[in-house]
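Data deposition worksheet. Section B asks for the primary sequence of the deposited chain exactly as it was used as input, without tags or linkers unless they were present during the calculation. Section C holds the resulting structure in token form. Section D is free text for depositor observations; keep each observation to a single sentence. Incomplete worksheets are returned to the depositor.
Section A, Depositor: J.P.
Section B:
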Amino acid sequence: LSGVITGATWQGQTVGVAYGGTGATSFTNNGVLLGQGASALATASSSTEGHVLTINNSGVPTFSHLSGGTF
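Section C:
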């Protein structure tokens, strides 16, 4: 892994998770970062007003509207 920082801009390769990096080259605007174990960070985002970050039945974070069910 090599690169040069010039004018505060990284001019190298993506820094992998194993080396303390994110493993990603870009992220979604206004997204929430999600860890993926040894894999690159991911993002979840929503452009719908009223959405909140929830966990679905499979344990995956997702944006949705809250239902009026029991909690």
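Section D:
Residues 22 and 40 are 6 Å apart (CA to CA).
The radius of gyration is 17 Å.
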